Amino acid sequence: MTKKKKQEPIIEQVNEEKFDSHLIARNVIADSNNITRDIYDKSRFGEPVEKNKFQYGMIEALFLLEKERINIYDGKKLMDFDVFMKKASKLDKTFWIKYCVYRDLRKRGYIAKTALKFGADFRVYDRGVKPGDDHAKWVVFPVHETDSFNWHEFSAKNRVAHSTRKNLLIGIVDEESDVTYYEITWTRP
Fold this sequence. Notes:
Blueprint: E1 19-24, E2 27-31, H1 34-43, E3 47-49, E4 53-57, H2 58-66, E5 70-74, E6 77-79, H3 81-91, H4 95-107, E7 111-114, E8 122-125, E9 138-144, H5 151-163, E10 167-173, E11 179-184
């Protein structure tokens, strides 16, 4: 009997070279090249836009920056993790909470993409499923452990998941930036 090899996190399976990108408003833009296409093809980081460009959301770009896979320039200035994080947090007060959930999902081997059109923070695909190959399994709402929402807000989140035929996943981030998930599904008695 052969021993099963532990699955490596998705980002580690791609070409290890860095690529350059530029912060433009709320997105990070990079030229299409062998590295960006390889990362997209294998792990679905970024979205192809325009001709010969890839666009990365702020959370996605920060993850690639943390993994030392991307150089991000603001004008001519090269940004490090802390500078980029500070800039992103000015645009979105809950950025760090969202990032913790995104990072945790990616490290577990899931592909998380924006779910803005669904009224959620992320849509998450089951392991081994790429966007375009099948539908996302969950819509995810990251929250801090000290946050609260009422039954109307909870119901609205559940309705979003149900109407998009996905399960609701609440990612609760604690003070140590660890994430605990709660999956909520509809049940018919």
